[in-house]
């Protein structure tokens, strides 16, 4: 295989960022609603987590022991995970937060992160986009680049009470 082969495949995945396979319920711990939906719509919920997804991009809920309401957008090149980012959207506040974008070794600098964030903005139009945590110094150029002309600019902002309820201290 030529050097252009793998690079072309990765760039092709970046170009297909709007072609997302949506998983509405991750099979780890289904709720009663998930079980009902699986019974009523079995063709939608046929999912083998070990299988290569039918599209190069997958969007799934964060796992049962991860953050409630958060989703993970994942890119596959072949059967390998190339990129993933966690996100959550608050429609009442019209804000989206992204955190922990990761391009895995061998898949960096091919535009997967930019394509994923662009796809999320397309999927959820009219939102401001932020991050909840601080940016590492070496990632600041990335955030400045992808945040140009984006409402919110992926600047750091605390999550709203709809997404992350405030804990009341008991005395």
Report on the structure:
The chain has a single domain, classed as Aminopeptidase (3-Layer(aba) Sandwich). Helix 1 runs parallel beside helix 3 (112-123). The chain is globular, with a radius of gyration of 17 Å. The protein has a seven-stranded mixed sheet with strand order 1-2-3-4-5-6-7, with helices on one face. The protein has helices at residues 4-15, 32-40, 112-123, 140-147, and strands at 20-22, 57-61, 71-77, 80-90, 95-103, 128-131, 155-156. It contains four helices and seven strands, in the order αβαββββαβαβ. The mean pLDDT is 80. Helix 4 links the parallel strand 6 (128-131) and strand 7. By secondary structure, the chain is α/β, with parallel strands linked by helices. It comes from Streptomyces diastaticus subsp. diastaticus. This is GNAT family N-acetyltransferase.
């Amino acid at each position: 295989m030529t050097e252009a082969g793998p690079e072309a495949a990765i760039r092709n995945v970046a170009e297909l960022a709007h072609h997302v396979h949506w998983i509405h319920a991750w099979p780890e711990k289904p709720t009663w609603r998930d079980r009902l939906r699986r019974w009523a719509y079995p063709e939608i919920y046929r999912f083998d987590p070990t299988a290569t997804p039918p599209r190069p991009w997958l969007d799934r809920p964060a796992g049962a022991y991860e953050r409630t309401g958060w989703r993970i957008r994942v890119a596959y090149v072949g059967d390998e995970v190339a990129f993933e980012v966690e996100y959550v959207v608050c429609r009442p506040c019209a804000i989206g937060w992204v955190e922990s974008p990761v391009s895995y070794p061998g898949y960096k600098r091919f535009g997967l992160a930019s394509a994923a964030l662009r796809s999320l903005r397309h999927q959820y139009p009219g939102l401001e986009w932020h991050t909840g945590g601080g940016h590492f110094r070496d990632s600041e150029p990335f955030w400045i680049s992808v945040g140009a002309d984006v409402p919110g600019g992926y600047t750091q902002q605390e999550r709203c009470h709809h997404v992350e309820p405030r804990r009341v201290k008991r005395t």
